[in-house]
Structure formats: structure tokens, C-alpha cells
Design a protein that fits this description.
Elements: E1 2-3, H1 14-33, E2 50-57, E3 60-66, H2 74-87, E4 103-110, E5 114-115, H3 121-127, E6 134-139, E7 142-146, H4 157-167, E8 180-184, E9 186-190, H5 193-204
Antiparallel strand pairs: 1-9, 2-3, 2-4, 4-9, 5-8, 6-7, 6-8
Length: about 200
């Protein structure tokens, strides 16, 4: 397990990350097989928290669903988001049992969103902290977020904002009246890459 970044109001360490990853994996495993996996317990799992669960397969995105605000215990949040990422992400078909051995999980724990004040989108872009900020955009019924991990694919703040506007269903090239924005940071843990590599080799055999 690798921890990518640390920034959260909870006392955050690798023990918590291990517990979150284990609960996410156990939820999907039980849904696919009916089998229960033993999971480490941690009293912090009873505290409210907001998580995103990301699935990758052969290093490609296979699902990502999460919560932007903490409204239920961490153990419930990470399990619900794991199941949603596996079976309800509209970009992908539901995960199958045959695929499961090749899936690697990542869990991101979010800080509370912080509203940003800006006069125009140029001022908003100037406030963004690449590779640190997750960003939420909203305008009327439109709403979307990018986790901080997306900066690795879109390192330019202007491009990052335009892509997020497009994800929200907004015009990426024109100012959006009434645009609102919030930022947050995450602590992200992911399973070892060798899990995915080993599973792929096993499948080839």
C-alpha cells in the first residue's frame, strides 16, 4: 500500500488507509462472490468522512465514485462508494467476477470543501494549486469535480478548469454566469501495482 499525500482533519496514517482499502475490497468481493473477507478495524471508521473509490484495470480507469461531503461513517461511505464505483459508474459496464482479479483499488479521503471567491475565471485559475487541489464546480443544475490526481493528466490550470467545465456539462470555452467553486485536498492510498501485474500474468497463464 502506498500513501500519496497527507492532508485531512482526521488523524490520518497508513493504518487508516489500510482499513479503508480493505473495507472497499471486501465490499466488492462479497458482492461478486458472496464470500466475506476479514478486515482490520479502526475506531476512526466510525467517524463521518467523505471518500472516493477508484478502480483501475491494467492501469486504466475502470470506475470512480465518491462523496464530496462527510455525512455518514467512513466505513459506510467507503463501502458504498466501492460498490458504486464497481457497479454503477455510468461510464462503464458493471464489474464482472472474471475481471475482479485484475482490479487495483485506490481510496481518497477528502477534506471539507472550501468555497473560493473570485470575480472571473481568470481569478479562479490564479487561486488553483496544481497537484494539491481537488476542485468542485457548480452552476445551476450542473456540478462536477476533479480529484487532485487529475492534475497528473491536466497539469495546466487553464486546461484543468476547461476540462472540468466540460465534465459538468458547461461550455469549456466561455465564461459561465453564476459559476461557483470549492476546493479540497485528499489523502490517497492505493494498493501495490504488483497486485495488478501479478493478476494480469496469472490471467495470461
Amino acid at each position: 500500500m502506498t500513501r500519496k499525500q497527507t492532508s485531512n482533519a482526521l488523524t490520518v496514517d497508513d493504518a487508516l488507509g489500510q482499513a479503508l482499502l480493505a473495507h472497499a475490497r471486501a465490499a466488492i468481493h462479497h458482492a461478486l462472490t458472496g464470500e466475506s473477507l476479514s478486515v482490520p478495524e479502526d475506531p476512526r471508521l466510525d467517524k463521518p468522512g467523505a471518500t472516493f473509490v477508484t478502480l483501475t484495470q491494467n492501469r486504466q480507469l475502470r470506475g470512480c465514485i465518491g462523496s464530496l461531503e462527510a455525512y455518514r461513517p467512513l466505513r459506510e461511505d467507503v463501502r458504498a462508494n466501492a460498490l458504486a464505483a464497481a457497479f454503477e459508474d455510468p461510464r462503464f459496464p458493471p464489474l464482472t467476477r472474471d475481471e475482479w482479479p485484475s482490479i487495483t483499488l485506490e481510496v481518497s479521503l477528502l477534506t471539507p470543501p472550501e468555497p473560493l471567491t473570485f470575480t472571473d475565471e481568470t481569478a479562479l485559475i490564479a487561486q488553483l494549486r496544481p497537484h494539491q487541489d481537488g476542485l468542485i464546480l457548480a452552476a445551476g443544475p450542473y456540478r462536477a469535480t476533479f480529484l487532485p490526481q487529475v492534475w497528473s493528466q491536466l497539469p495546466d490550470p487553464k486546461t484543468f478548469l476547461a476540462a472540468l467545465k466540460q465534465k459538468a456539462g458547461l461550455d469549456p470555452f466561455r465564461p459561465v454566469p453564476g459559476l461557483k467553486a470549492w476546493r479540497y485536498t485528499v489523502t490517497a492510498w492505493h494498493e501495490p501495482a504488483h497486485r495488478e501485474a501479478s493478476a494480469s500474468q496469472g490471467a495470461r497463464r
